[in-house]
Design goal:
It is built from one helix and six strands, in the order ββββαββ. It is globular and about 45 Å long. Strands 2-3-1-4 form a four-stranded mixed beta sheet, covered by helices on one side. By secondary structure, it is mainly beta. The protein is about 10% helix and about 35% strand.
């Protein structure tokens, strides 16, 4: 529900034609971009990585590099909240 992009390695020929396009996030339907970032290991799994900037450090850094929204779905006490979108400027 808070995935903001799909990232692929810029050198991965399988996905080159998809970079810059959008796909649908299924649960709470939203169009999200397909981006190219060298953090993605094209040999691991499918070679495509969902980016959830509020999830971990790597995703956060990708989100900052690509100006993705940082969507926080947790209250300070760890319970689920209404989705709150914060656009962080660094």
């Amino acid at each position: 529900m808070v995935d903001e992009a799909i990232a692929v390695n810029p050198d991965d020929k399988r996905f080159k034609s998809l970079v810059g396009l959008h796909c649908w996030r299924p649960l709470n339907k939203k169009s999200i971009p397909i981006i190219a970032d060298s953090v993605v290991d094209k040999e691991f799994g499918t070679g495509a990585l969902k980016i959830t900037p509020a999830h971990d450090v790597v995703d956060f850094e990708v989100g900052i590099r690509h100006n993705l929204p940082i969507t926080d779905a947790l209250n300070p006490n760890g319970t689920m909240s209404k989705l709150q979108v914060r656009n962080l400027k660094v």
